[in-house]
């Protein structure tokens, strides 16, 4: 059986190489991240998303995970807005949540070096959302006056 994950992009292969993917599935040197619907920490982004295939995908599914990995930034948030990046991770999402309330997403994560480009992108999106919201509120207010 072929144990290799199909990774074509050269930068993606540096981030999500076969060894890291197999470590994620096996849970070696990983962290468990649980993100609730309303939480002070969120995982944002799906950079370098890679759908696993073959024996690697079957291993992930057998372990209770979806056959995909991607890079995300784990954030300390305030009302869903990113405040402080807590780390960049290669994540493997669980197929189902074992939280009794069922309102959480669970991930097995492998810490990577901070991806500052991804962090800046998230900050830019947050600032644009805030400015857009302020603009809509001001326009609405001026229409009412």
Entry summary:
It contains four helices and five strands. With 145 residues, the chain is an alpha+beta fold.
Explain how this protein is built.
- This protein has 145 residues and is of the alpha+beta class.
- The protein has one domain (10-144).
- The protein contains four helices and five strands.
- It has helices at residues 10-15, 18-26, 54-62, 116-144; strands at residues 31-36, 41-51, 68-78, 81-93, 104-112.
- The chain has a five-stranded antiparallel β-sheet.
- Strand 3 and strand 4 form a beta hairpin.
- It is elongated and about 65 Å long.
- Residues 1-11 have low confidence and may be disordered.
H/E order of the elements? HHEEHEEEH
Which secondary-structure class do the elements indicate?
A: alpha+beta
Number of strands: 5
- Strand numbers in spatial order across the main sheet: 1-5-4-3-2
Classify the helix fraction into a percent range: 25-40%
| Main β-sheet description | 5 strands, antiparallel
What spatial form do the alpha-carbon principal axes imply? Answer: elongated
Task: Compute the CA-based radius of gyration.
Answer: 18 Å
Total individual domains: 1
The average pLDDT score comes to 88
Q: Tell me the distance between the termini.
A: 70 Å
Strand content: 25-35%
Helix count from the secondary structure assignment: 4
**Which parts are unreliable, with pLDDT below 50 for 5 consecutive residues or more?**
1-11
């Amino acid at each position: 059986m072929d144990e290799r994950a199909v990774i074509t992009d050269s930068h993606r292969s540096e981030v999500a190489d076969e060894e890291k993917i197999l470590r994620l599935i096996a849970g070696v040197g990983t962290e468990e991240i649980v993100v609730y619907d309303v939480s002070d920490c969120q995982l944002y982004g799906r950079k370098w998303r890679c759908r696993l295939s073959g024996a690697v995908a079957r291993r992930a599914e057998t372990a209770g995970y979806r056959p995909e990995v991607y890079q995300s930034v784990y954030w300390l948030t305030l009302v869903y807005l990113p405040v402080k990046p807590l780390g960049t991770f290669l994540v493997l999402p669980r197929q189902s949540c074992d939280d009794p309330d069922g309102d959480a997403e669970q991930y097995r994560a492998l810490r990577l070096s901070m991806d500052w480009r991804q962090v800046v992108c998230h900050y830019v999106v947050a600032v644009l959302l805030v400015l857009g919201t302020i603009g809509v509120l001001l326009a609405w207010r001026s229409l009412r006056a």
